[in-house]
Amino acid sequence: MSSEKLIIDRRTLGRLSMGLAAAAATGIDVGAIVPPAKAATAIAATPETGPIKVGILHSLSGTMAISEVPLKDVMLMLIAEQNKRGGVMGRPLEPVVVDPASNWPLFAEKAKQLLSVDKVAAVFGCWTSVSRKSVLPVFEHLNGILLYPVQYEGQECSRNVFYTGAAPNQQAIPAVDYLMNQVGVKRWVLEGTDYVYPRTTNKILEAYLKKKGFGSADIMINYTPFGYSDWQAEVAKIKSFGSAGKKTAVVSTINGDANVPFYKELGNRGIKATDIPVIAFSVGEQELAGIDTKPLVGHLAAWNYFESVDTPANKEVVAAFKKFTNNDKRVFNDPMEAHYIGFNIWVKAVEKAATTNHDAVIDAMIGVAHPNLSGDYATMMPNHHLTKPVLIGEVQENGQFNTVWQTPGLVVAQPWSPYLPESKNLIGDWLPPMSCGSYDVVAGKCLGNHKA
Amino acid sequence: MRLDRANIATLSCVLGGAAVLAAMNLLIPAVSPLHVPDFVIAIAGKYLCYAILALAIDLVWGYAGILTLGHAAFFALGGYAMGMYLMREIGARGVYANPTLPDFMVFIGWTHLPWYWYGFSHFWFALAMVVVVPGTLAFVFGWFAFRSRVSGVYLSIITQALTYALMLAFFRNDMGFGGNNGMTDFKDVLGFPLNRESTETGLMLVTATVLSLSFLLARAMIHSRFGKVLIAVRDAEPRTRFLGYRPESYKLVVWTVSAIIAAIGGALYVPQVGIINPSEFAPGNSIEAVIWVAVGGRGTLYGAILGAMLVNLGKTWLTSALPEIWLFAIGGLFIVVTLFLPRGITGLFTTRQPPKGSKQASAATEASMREAAR
Amino acid sequence: MSEPTLLYLDGVTVSFDGFKALNELSMVLEPGEMRAVIGPNGAGKTTMMDVITGKTRPDQGRIVFGADIDLTKLDEPAIARLGIGRKFQQPTVFETLTVRDNLLLALAGDRSPRFTLWARESADEHAQLDRLLATIRLVQERDRRAAELSHGQKQWLEIGMLLAQDPKLLLIDEPAAGMTDAETAETAELLREINRTRSVVVIDHDMAFVRALGVKITVLDEGCVLAEGSIDAIQDNPHVIEVYLGR
Amino acid sequence: MLWRGVCVCRRRLWFSMLIAALSAAVPTAPAHAGGDPFAQIAATNFDIVAQGVQALATSGNPRAAAVIDALRDGKLYAWKWPRPDAPLYIRSATGFVDARSGAPVEAPAAINLRRVIVNDSVRAAIATAEGALGLFAKDPAARRTAAEALYQSADPGALSLIERALTNEKNAGVAQVLREAAAAALLKSDNGSGSTRIAAVDELATRSDLSARNLLASLHSEPPPVAAAIAGAIHDIDRRLKLWSLVENLYYGVSLGAVLLLAASGLAITFGVMGVINMAHGEMIMTGAYTTFVVQQLVAATMPGLNEFGLLIAVPAAFVVAAGLGIVIERCLIRFLYGRPLETLLATWGLSLVLQQAVRSIFGATNQDVTSPAWMSGSLDVGGLVLTVNRLWIILFALLVLGGLMATLRWGGLGRSIRAVMQNRRMAAVMGIRTPWIDALTFGLGSGIAGMAGVALSQIDNVSPNLGQNYIVDSFIVVVVGGVGNLWGTLFGAVLLGIVDKFVEPFEGAVLAKIIVLVFLILFIQRRPQGLFPLKGRAAEA
After folding, report:
1. How far apart are the C-alpha atoms of D490 and D475, rounded to whole Å?
2. 20 to 30 A Cα–Cα from A181, which one of B125, D221, D242, D282?
3. Cα–Cα distance for residue pair A313/B14, rounded to 1 Å
């Protein structure tokens, strides 16, 4: 069992308590922790009076609109509700919606605009890794705050970004553990779209599986282009790979658009979940909403949240969302929950810091906790990632997931994968004394990327 | 003469405008309402790069009647060449503090630098590559295409195929150009920190200058006898053959020059937007760039610059003002322009005849098409 | 053949999808000669022009220019540079260029981009242009765009461009088409003038015009030579009558 | 590994043999009282639930079928907190019945109940169980599926059961499957003499499909002769499959070609025949796809009986909608741009943006769920070849569309006028053909075809606002390769590109395959600037 990931080890606990302390401290006097030099360069200093502007940086057109529009909707809902509750620090929240149109340079431009022209207190946005990468320098330079709600490949830990989605060890590895231990899988197909998230995730998984004693002969890694729609040959390959007399599973990091044809092909070839289960990391309720789910029943997905989760808080939020969009067909998914958590943690942090000043809020965020919709508490750790439960769900006829397994405890994110040679010694920790996004615990020094 | 007025007007707009913006950004204190925020400088620089691309397209489309739907490919190639230099410039300041390997290579587990990355640590080499790589590609592509008399729509389509193929190629992580994420997180250029205001302003001014120079170059080309032949080719290609000219070699020259101009635009674009990745090759981008030219007015050069500026200004404004429905506006604009302003915006102000030839050329293509229907 | 010939078509055949546009066509043109080629529609007149100027490659046969140059091996620009000029049925001039620039581009000289990129107009060229403008009676229109010229003026401009090329052989397709009688007469005069210095092949329907030229005539039909000779001989030729009047 | 083997044997001794069937799927099942299967099903551990299902299936308990079906359909409820008597209820339309007795009980408070959920291992167990239960059904088809299920689960425990069924099985087909099932079960069990095992191996070798290979490959620690037989059988199967894989690639290529053909044939009209560079062509396809979605919704709402045929209704509907849209576009936009194809390109590009955004505003940005009717799902096994039914339909549909199109152009009255106008519009006009109207109709025809393509593509791709974008470049490439204005060319172009792509893919991977195809195209155009089937003669020279 992968216990090392499930238990919050002592060091983290220590840092967490430090985090709370530090956060509390910062909460008291804000002016002090903003060195004047920074104040000068912090072009993005936000006004301390009047409505608090919140940037929403999600593609409303272009290829990514499919995934990102719901995130915009959920943010508008959260802001509206917060305002009903009297806003933050008695100041109303004002959403600033822009459309980066699935165009990466435009993401950077819009980020710049939100920070330097609209002077927003925080930005909720991005989906693809590339969009995050393109805005990252902007946020670091203008010292803004980005809350990034999507599960990603890790290997990053910026002071100005709060990663409310899952790091690989909060999704991929528990999923593989489940297949290994609960389903008894002996042979692995790592099928992904050819970009960074699948590449990295698969590298981590490969390393992990090898460590668990699987030979290269039992691991097949394969990549297809974006929006790949003719899966006949690939699926045939998978089927014959799965006919070597060992239980085989597909670990899918296939990107949104290519999934529908992929599952349709599986279904038509009569590959049932009972023969070769597919566990997906990028297929959620949103994606299933566009699919005829009959052939998918029994296939798996690993997330930190499912709409079907049976908690009062979840039921309430989901209902509120359907009401807000007045459309019963709308679904709620993991990144939306991430925004829900991120937003609430940010609100608490602002109230704790009693200011919207970016430096103050960035420090105040650490240690703030909020209930997950899937139960237990999400805490913002010093590495700017959340503690999350990991759920394995099976696709049901109705397009919902049915949780079949769940990590016993919360999983602490490891943005720097211990299974990759280049990052095995790295940790991120934004509390003093480290205050460093990539700290080499062996060399005991910070590799670039530290507090400006 | 009109030509010179056009020259002066354009140059003073581009250079003067840039200078004023720069001054209002650097000299006027941030508190004053007259202060121009860095954001404006940044997008101004970006637009100027787009203007260079538009200029390059107008040179081949407006004057040689070659409708290229793949010019963004050269733009992006130039960008990649510059991006590679900027990556090397980061040096050990990357996330993994690897002195030689860019982060994304460490990231996909490469152990040493691939050969085609050698030399990019030198600025001059990168500059050379900015010109050489796209130039060579354009030359080879054009040499094949024009020699075998691929023209009109066929040419447009294969230029699309070219940029599409390049996009897919650069998407592949194995190519060693950062795959889908491309290159980003640049630190500085020639030692100037990219995120410093003065650097941004400087780059913007450089871009304005380059734009002006390419404008003058293009201008000079089309007013030379070479340019007259070019127009002759556009208007009645067979006739030029019977006069003893080889249209293919004329097209090839202007095509290559145009590609190089576009590439330089791309090279200036990357440090200003801070990222270069395969989506720059997307077929749509090339088409959009052609539309800037159409909106501004084809066959005028300054029209191209104007078009690029206006359309992108509109885009920036609309994506914030009406993010939900801005596509209606921009799409509608393209339709209206092609329907009611066949000569673009500048067509409204100039009394010049429309570039008939292009019309003839297209009429010819259409004729061939109609005939082909047999 | 003993006597020197300028152009020699030897059994040239061109077929499009089975239809033979030229069928074993053979014809000889003497240096300095002016020849009128007539024939009904589809007789292959224009196709003959095309094969000579290299626009169309013949399936069989040779076309020998001067002593021993096989034109079927060359493409249009090469043939043009040998000194074969062609005038189209529809006047094709460069509409957006001025009359003067049209002629300037036609002037004999280096055709390579390398040259034209840096070329400056020489005094000699200047003089030549003035002479040409006078010859084709377009001095007033020198700086107007070709597009603004009348039909007849365009015809002359194109002829002017041919002269500017200084070719040994001119191929002229229906020069009198759509001209007023006056213009037609002038054109005939112009052609005879041209013929003093170079060989000419004229294609036309207009018998009056052909008669006005008063030169040897070749009658084409269905892609091969039906008859050849003086205007009177041709007009009495029963085949010709049959071909022209019989349908 | 070794440890697992040991534990498996131990469990085989302890529990009913059936459980062994699950050993593969259930490596680490804690020892659990083998007693009451109902109690096992009421447990929260999936493995125990699975064991319970197996036990129940072979217990001969009359309630078995009812309970297992209820479990499969998610109608089975258990007490939320552990209780010694582990009550089980089946929810019926009226209320709850006791699972054990089948007697109605008054509904317990919902707060105390939890639905018994199933995961894959349980589902597998259910399949086996139903196999066991279905073997003696009246309907031979049912018996066959049951036998097939047993074959798939290769469950030693079911061996006796299968043999019993085999003795009184009349139907030859079912008997064959039963023999294979028996062979599978025998090989999975540890008993049976060498000769019988070899016989079983041969039995499976005749079946020689992947599942057989899978099963044979899973056998280890066999006596040498049997091992040899197995190796031989696997080798045969592999060789046979390798031969088929070539044919398979060809088929993949053709079916990809069919998709390209569908996407392109509309463009072959608007672009090929009319010379309109129609960048909004992809959006016409999208329109067709969304029409399909709407039609399916309407059918489902109004006449559920026809659900299976919603797709057929969608075909004409999509044609009409897209054609109508096309005609409107032609009248309001394209007609002002004739003779300026390059301007049309720009205008239609703008148009495509507007159409995409329109769809996004109306239907939302997310994908729409277009269902596949039963007759378009599943696959046919032809020899070693697996032909997915939907692809077969699409190939057929593509050919029908193209054929219909050619027929219309060649013989139809409209077709005649279209050809007349396109070849010489002045003459056509003189002869009294209303050319503007014909232009509109032609464009409508092309758009309509694209719409029908949308119906087909909705079956294999996402129905999203971006649907069209994915096909526009390919469509143009196909038309150009085929030779503009030549429908046969379009057909060959599509199939050629499809086959090249699919033959390169196995060696170079999907991404490179696409790149290679594009480079091939660029070079190809150099050689044949007019496409595969250029039109010679004066006509083509303009």
Report:
1. 9
2. D221
3. 58
Chains C and A touch (3+ CB pairs under 8 A): no
For an interface test with D, give the residue of C14, C15, C16 to mutate (most D CBs within 10 A): C16
Chosen for mutation from D117, D354, D367, D508 (greatest number of chain A CBs closer than 10 Å) is D367
Length of chain C: 247
- Quick one: pLDDT at residue A45? 66
Q: Are the beta carbons of B250 and B229 closer than 8 angstroms?
A: yes
Percent of chain D with pLDDT over 90: 16
| CATH no., domain A3-167+312-388 | 3.40.50.2300
Indicate yes or no: CB of A194 within 8 angstroms of CB of B180: yes
Spatial separation of the C-alpha atoms in residues B14 and B209, rounded to whole Å: 8
DSSP C219: E
Domain extents in chain B: 2-288
Q: What is the dihedral of CA A9, A12, A13, A18, to 10 degrees?
A: 160
Reply yes or no on whether the pLDDT at D30 is more than 80: no
Residue that the structure tokens 């032949």 belong to: B229
User: pLDDT tens digits for D63-95?
Assistant: 888 888 888 887 888 887 777 777 888 888 778
Give the closest-approach CA distance of A235 to chain B in angstroms: 21
Does C1 have pLDDT greater than 90? no
Q: Which residue type is seen at B294?
A: A
- Per-residue pLDDT tens for D370-382? 888 888 887 887 7
Assess whether the region A3-167+312-388 and the region A172-280 belong to the same CATH fold: yes
DSSP H helix total and E strand total for chain C: 10, 10
Structure pTM?
A: 0.85
* Phi and psi at residue A54, to the nearest 5°: -125, 120
Q: How far is CA A298 from CA A281, D50, D120, D367, in A?
A: 15, 15, 6, 21
Q: D521 in contact with B at a CB cutoff of 8 Å?
A: yes
CA distance A93 to A53: 6
User: How confident is residue C91, by pLDDT bands cut at 50, 70 and 90?
Assistant: confident
CA distance B73 to B46: 17
Q: Where are the domains of chain A?
A: 3-167+312-388, 172-280
D residues 401-430 closer than 8 Å to B (CB): 419, 422-423, 425
pLDDT above 60 for D23: no
Residues D373/D314, Cβ–Cβ less than 8 Å: no
* CB of C18 less than 8 A from some CB of D: no
Residue C144 reports pLDDT greater than 50: yes
pLDDT recorded at residue B366: 40
Radius of gyration of chain B (CA): 21
Report, as an integer, the average pLDDT of D325-346. Answer: 86
Give pLDDT, residue B13.
Answer: 87
Are B79 and B273 within 8 A, CB to CB? no
Q: What number does CATH give the domain A172-280?
A: 3.40.50.2300
Of D52, D60, D67, D66, residue with least CA distance to D15: D52
> Cα–Cα distance between C222 and C231 in angstroms, integer?
20
